[in-house]
Write a structure and sequence with these properties.
The structure is a homodimer.
Chain A (H helix, E strand, L loop, with lengths): L3 H8 L3 H9 L6 H14 L12 E7 L10 H15 L2 E7 L2 H6 L2 H8 L1 E7 L6 H5 L7 E4 L9 E6 L1 H14 L5 E4 L6 H16 L23 H6 L4 E4 L2 H13 L9 E6 L3 H4 L5 E4 L2 H16 L4 E6 L2 E3 L10
Parallel strand pairs in A: 1-2, 1-3, 3-4, 4-5, 5-10, 6-7, 7-8, 8-9
Antiparallel strand pairs in A: 9-11
Helix pairs in contact in A: 1-2, 1-3, 2-3, 3-4, 4-13, 8-9
Chain lengths: 331, 331
């Protein structure tokens, strides 16, 4: 577990200042105190005071998503959630769940047994057993990237795929591209379906050609590119939008293996803007999801549901980050 | 202006308890203190302490919507917003605006000149001059029932029309209705377009007949019913969904004038659940928008934008309130 000294080192301040922040002393600024607490939450440091008995319990269930290190997609989502939950006097447990766990134990049972007053779900797929149970649960529950119709106890938080995909396509059009493909993530995901629809809507609106073959489903991993890049290149595609940055990294590799230069011959755009994006060669143009803010907004949506304000949907704006993987279409 | 005694009377507590609440005394509960402050905000009572100099300024601009009394649609939206804004240390000005004012003064100019750090817009129509300016403003702005694409400084708050309309149609289907019309509000409104699309989607999904003639646009006033009810009845419609409760009140009147009983011959459903709904004869089945919560969520969305969290959309769940204006279809 982290020590006070670790927190002091990370923030570049003295140990005594960290102590003041943790103990609520009045002679440091509110801003600094909050930084100390946020960092303590991030590093897993807790004091007796921070674990007070009157704190209510929440759980973040993680299925099918990496979140252990800052490089991984889920890390900042969970961190943002925990930081603001802490300020509002909640204790948060993070629990990875498997499909077999979901078959063994009912969602409501698990929540009640453990005294959780609400939960945040990240990484769930459409066929997950608990997804059916979310339709009828009356425990406040927020889903990242999944939507449940008509249940007032369940909310949805996500980034607007429609604006993100359209931003990317408009950027490519301005560079002269017309033959643009979408190499999507896995088919059993609400967000993949949403991005596919966003691609269809945007290509239609801009009068660009597309077909079933220009929008294949893959998986949310780099290796997924192997199965599709050859086919897309042979169709004369000049730009590939990818379901996430990992897929985009695989696409860049596959293009190079086949003697195509990125971005001179093929433009590539990712989705998410995980830290990897800046380290690729070339650095990746991508649609950014602000994951810290997604986590924070996820908490506030859950907090609203717990307080009987039935928010069904909170959407954040994406932001197109221009780097070096897109260029003028070869003509 | 209200006095301390007015607040005491409204809450049924003593004048000295109100004073304690206003002055932040520690020997009353937090819950009671908050009720005192909420009521003070509602009644327009302020103390010197409540008007502190460090409070930031927000403006609610109202166009084309009644909000002066609790019976009117806008009242609770503005009240909910002001109550939570007050707790977060903002001062709120409420300003009715006309189309001519919007032509005279630019939105950004007006905001900067008056030192407002953000604004909440209610009742704006698509052709309003400022609607164009919201596309490019970089002042944090939240619109009730209007959406601006791709501007990260502008958010949208509303109730999910799609679920509300579908709930109403499912309820009517369960009563045996198939010929269901939508008497919509005015055509120059995003929310009217959204409800029209919701009607089309739901009727299509449930395999029910509809046409251009079964979904006319009107206006958001009772009188609007006069122009349409005769035609809908002559088409053999057995149930009428209305764009709001005022239209529904007009529809009930018009049906009766033509010798049709509500609900025995014609079922009628409103939208909003304003206080009038319970007073109609028969009391109105309607799709409820929780306007206090809309106001509160509008504030929190604006507060997020001011703090650089770019929320594009916050949607609340509607709730179908069953009263006496719907019944089994006559067969």
């Amino acid at each position: 577990m982290a020590t006070i000294k670790d927190i002091a080192n990370k923030l570049g301040i003295s140990v005594s200042t960290v102590s003041k922040g943790l103990n609520g002393a009045s002679d440091i600024s509110e801003h600094l105190r909050q930084s100390v607490l946020d960092t303590a939450v991030e590093m897993g440091y807790t004091t007796k005071q921070m674990r007070g008995k009157d704190r209510r319990k929440l759980c973040i269930f993680v299925e099918n998503m990496d979140y252990e290190t800052p490089e991984q997609f889920g890390y900042d989502i969970i961190l943002g959630f925990r930081q603001v939950a802490f300020r509002e006097n909640y204790d948060v447990t993070v629990l990875p769940v498997t499909p077999s766990f979901q078959s063994t134990e009912k969602y409501d049972t698990h929540m009640l047994k453990n005294g959780y007053v609400g939960a945040f779900m990240v990484g769930f797929a459409l066929q997950d057993e608990w997804m059916k149970q979310f339709i009828t649960t009356n425990i406040p529950t927020v889903l990242f990237d999944n939507y449940i119709k008509k249940n007032p106890y369940v909310g949805y938080i996500g980034t607007d795929s429609f604006e993100g995909i359209d931003d990317a396509i408009v950027h490519l059009m301005e560079l002269g591209h017309r033959r643009i493909a979408l190499l999507n993530g896995s088919a059993n995901s609400m967000i993949s379906e949403q991005r596919r629809q966003a691609y269809i809507d945007s290509m239609t609106a801009h009068d660009l050609p597309f077909s079933e073959a220009t929008m294949p489903y893959g998986y949310y991993v780099a290796d997924s590119a192997k199965d599709h890049v050859g086919n897309l290149l042979s169709m004369g595609i000049s730009a590939i939008l990818c379901g996430n940055d990992l897929i985009a990294s695989g696409v860049i590799t596959e293009c190079k293996l086949r003697g195509y230069r990125v971005p001179e011959d093929i433009s590539v755009i990712g989705f998410d803007d995980i830290p990897l994006s800046t380290k690729l060669n070339p650095p990746l143009t991508t649609v950014r999801q602000d994951r810290i803010e997604l986590g924070k907004s996820g908490f506030y949506t859950l907090h609203s549901l717990i307080n009987h304000v039935s928010i069904s949907k909170t959407m954040l704006r994406p932001q197109l980050i221009l780097r070096k993987s897109t260029a003028k279409a070869f003509s």
